[in-house]
Write a structure and sequence with these properties.
Layout lengths: L7 H13 L4 H13 L1 H17 L9 H17 L8
Helix pairs in contact: 1-3
Length: 89
């Protein structure tokens, strides 16, 4: 495999950015070359596109006012526990 060859695992890691058009031209070129020779990755891309298309048409689940207040309180509490925006990593 040449140094410039893209592996399937790399494609899977970048597929959403690829679909969003958020990758540099050189990475897109490598992905396009990989897709030209890799039927499983082409199938994976089509499955991802279909999933996004179908999920985009689902109506949002309603959230009750009490659940919304509880979630917002939990997020505020969690954020307040983190000094200077530290994320614990």
């Amino acid at each position: 495999m040449a140094d410039d060859d893209l592996r399937c695992a790399e494609f899977v890691e970048t597929v959403t950015a690829y679909m969003d058009g958020a990758l540099p031209a050189e990475v897109v070129r490598r992905i396009d070359e990989h897709l030209a020779i890799c039927p499983p990755c082409r199938d994976y891309l089509e499955q991802m596109r279909l999933t996004v298309s179908r999920l985009g048409t689902l109506p949002p689940d309603p959230v009750s006012a009490s659940v919304r207040r509880s979630l917002l309180a939990a997020f505020r509490s969690w954020k307040a526990e983190r000094p200077n925006g530290a994320d614990g990593s």
